[in-house]
Amino acid sequence: MLRRALPRALGAVPCPRRRCHRPCPPRDLAVPNAAWSDRMRRHYGHLLSTATREGWTRLPSFRRAREHRHQVPWLAGDSDSDGAGDTRLFPRAIEGDGDGFEFAMFLNVPKGRLRCLCQPGPFLEGHPGLAHGGAIATLVDTSLGTLALAVAGRVVTANLSIDYLAPVPLRSVLLLEASLQRRQGRKLFLGCDLRDPDGDTLHARATGEGHGDRGTLGTRGHAAHQGHR
Ligand SMILES: CCCCCCCCCC(=O)SCCNC(=O)CCNC(=O)[C@H](O)C(C)(C)COP(=O)(O)OP(=O)(O)OC[C@H]1O[C@@H](n2cnc3c(N)ncnc32)[C@H](O)[C@@H]1OP(=O)(O)O
User: Fold this and answer.
1) Which of 106, 108, 109, 103 has the alpha carbon at shortest distance from 89?
2) How many angstroms separate the CA atoms of 206 and 187, rounded?
């Protein structure tokens, strides 16, 4: 009992597979794995190689929201409220490499932009062979949410609107390009396109609205984002 209680009391993360209760360092999931297609690897390599020169930062990505706290300390919610600690960040809930959402994000705060390279896996099926609309919405919400958090601090999604323009085949490669469009008080208005990075297909276009806490939005956001008002 002590073996289980002690790591939790110290804030250690139990092994996600529950095979042991030794602390596990969080694994960065936004890096190539065996399930990434050659196309996914090629685009990732290109984004990574040009990132620093063009002012983009690759964001690490972990299984649980709280594992992002050092990087995103203004995540809403209470990290103690998840009881036994067995939580998953929704787009990272499917554990098999390649089965769910494979994605890597690149952020450019001064420009108010985020890129998300993604490969939807077979467990995200809607119509046979095609990605579920809810899975696409998850990618959109996660991308717009991450951008909003980065530029403005503590923000939640108030509104999301998606035009689904062309079906997304499972295991395809997609590039989501998001940008902050404007700000109005505590509200952030964001938009994104989801495209085939090698072709002309625009799969989806979305807009989202994020709302900040009273008193939060405007301090961090003002400093980071004067150019986007
Ligand atoms: C590294 C890890 C990255 C993880 C990224 C994850 C990103 C995930 C992001 C999410 O999915 S967050 C989860 C989904 N969202 C929520 O759970 C939000 C739940 N809703 C709320 O908390 C509140 O309803 C909300 C903060 C959105 C609004 O509450 P307020 O108390 O600020 O609203 P209020 O009634 O005072 O209205 C303020 C203004 O907002 C407007 N408003 C309220 N709700 C709205 C709405 N839903 N859509 C658009 N506008 C809205 C309202 O009309 C009004 O406009 P005006 O100022 O012009 O009068």
Assistant:
1) 103
2) 17
Side-chain-side CA neighbours of 199 within 13 Å: the count stands at 9
Domain at 186, CATH number: 3.10.129.10
114 CA to centre of ligand 1 in angstroms: 21
- Pocket test residue of 211, 214, 216, 217 for ligand 1, highest count of atoms within 8 A of CB: 211
Number of independent structural domains in the chain: 1
In a domain, 13, yes or no: no
17 within domain boundaries: no
Do the domain assignments include residue 118? yes
In a domain, 159, yes or no: yes
Residue-wise pLDDT for 41-64, tens only, equals: 999 999 999 999 999 999 999 999
Nearest to 104 by CA among 49, 43, 52, 148: 43
11 Cα–ligand 1 center, Å: 31
Domain membership of residue 84 as a residue range: 27-228
Q: Is 141 a catalytic residue?
A: yes
Ligand 1 mean position, distance from CA 129 (Å): 34
Question: pLDDT tens-digit profile of 111-122?
Answer: 999 999 999 999
